[in-house]
Amino acid sequence: MTEIRSRSGRRQNVPEPIRVTLWNEFVHERKDDSVRSIYPDGMHAVWEQALRTHLGDAVSVRTATLDQPGHGLGDGVLESTDVLFWWGHIAHGDVADEVAAAVADRVRRGMGLVALHSAHYSKVFKLLLGTTCSLRWRNQKDRELVWTVDPTHPVARGVPSPIVIPEQEMYGEFFDVPPPDDLVFISSFTGGEVFRGGCGWKRGFGRVFYFSPGDQEYPVYHHPDVQRVLANAALWVAPSDIRGKAYTADFSPTGWFE
């Protein structure tokens, strides 16, 4: 076990190394030349590079994609994952309900989830948050400024405020999600819109972090400050323990604790 002390002072014991699975729909990179030119090996390859650069031997990284059997999360992969990254867009509906339910169950038992950009509409994210997760959007090459609103939060460690992203898809309020337990970043856009683009929630024994920058048509994941956020988020959602089952309310007769 490796003990990591967060910037907030909370001690967190995590397996050594943290077992990270990067789940990418991996559709755009294969069918769209414009996306392939930015991410020739897939967006997940850039995330892996970011994690290895910032976290080194503290993480082990593997990838999974939609087209693999069980979406790459079967045969014990999900059960041996401490932190799962999730990116999806045009194929949310192709994700099997049973896989989405298994991911949500694993989070409730302690696994960390980092949901990226259009993963806000994924089955997994909506299952965990329980709302439509709808938002305002526009894809016209807006400049995005990612402002840190909680500089004490571990995900904000070493991140400048603002992160300047020259071109990006606009995501704006209202964002139909439950009030975040942790609000770390708010974005502003050329058109004047704002968005809660860096949010954390506790779900059962697990943590969820949503980070909005990252449309496939722009090289956002190559941005060094965005890569720092991804690494920080992986550490923050990493579990201290993963339970055999989600929390349950048990019948307790009078005197059960005596």
Automatic annotation (TrEMBL):
It comes from the Bacteria. It holds the Pfam family ThuA. Residues 19-237 form the ThuA-like domain. InterPro entries: Class_I_gatase-like, ThuA-like, Trehalose_catabolism_ThuA_prok. Transmembrane segments: none annotated. This is Trehalose utilization protein ThuA. It comes from Virgisporangium ochraceum.
